[in-house]
Amino acid sequence: MIISVVYDSGFGHTKKLAEAVAKGAAEIEGAAVHLFHVGEDAHYPWEVLEKSDAIIFGSPTYNGTISAKLKAFFEASTKPVWNEFRWRNKIAAGFTNSGSLSGDKLNSLITMALFAAQHGMIWAGLDLHPANPESSLSTKDLNGLGSWLGAMAFSENDSPEVTPGESDLNTAQYLGKRVAQLAENFTLK
């Protein structure tokens, strides 16, 4: 089973989330996990992505939406992928990060989910209740920002060595594991 994590990261915060997502996916026996940073190279791994059972998208939220580099990847997929629905029935999910509690991260996740829907993919959200509102975002509680469409993180514009916090990283790891479990169940049937 192949799980691919396709992401952009401007300052390293979203890269940390991508690594947590990959770590979670790798917890499932038999999962081969590939990380692809779209900001590093304009050569996209279409063949690997076509062989993937699940693709998890990640982006920082800039000005209320996904990064220009992830958007360029989405647009580049039309000819090699979308025209023949090569990603039809693959599991898809998403994660995002911004320097404020809201930052309109939901719009970034909606953009990713809509892209996945246009490719005939099956979107997997979080199956988690929000963390206890009495707890701090620095706790280990999952889903501290209360998202269902995908994993959200808050980075306070600090160094990636400081943020995102443990709760957000654990939520990203949970998302990766959930997607790998769903992909495993889906491919068995």
Molecular structure report:
This protein is of the alpha/beta class and 189 residues long. It has helices at 13-26, 46-51, 68-76, 105-118, 166-188, and strands at residues 2-7, 32-37, 54-60, 91-98, 122-123, 151-154. It has a single domain (2-188), classed as 3-Layer(aba) Sandwich (Rossmann fold). Strands 1, 2, 3, 4, 5 and 6 form a six-stranded parallel beta sheet that branches. The radius of gyration is 15 Å and the shape is globular. It has five helices and six strands; from the N terminus they run βαβαβαβαββα.
Topology summary:
Blueprint: E1 2-7, H1 13-26, E2 32-37, H2 46-51, E3 54-60, H3 68-76, E4 91-98, H4 105-118, E5 122-123, E6 151-154, H5 166-188
Parallel strand pairs: 1-2, 1-3, 3-4, 4-5, 4-6
Helix pairs in contact: 1-5
Q: What descriptors fit this protein?
A:
alpha/beta; 189 residues; Rossmann fold; single chain; six-stranded parallel β-sheet
Assigned CATH architecture: 3-Layer(aba) Sandwich
Distance between the termini: 14 Å
Uncertain ranges: none
Report helical residue fraction.
25-40%
Beta-strand content: 15-25%
Give me the Rg, rounded.
Answer: 15 Å
Order of helices and strands: EHEHEHEHEEH
User: What coarse outline follows from CA principal-axis ratios?
Assistant: globular
Q: Nutshell version of this structure?
A:
The chain has 189 residues and is α/β, with parallel strands linked by helices.
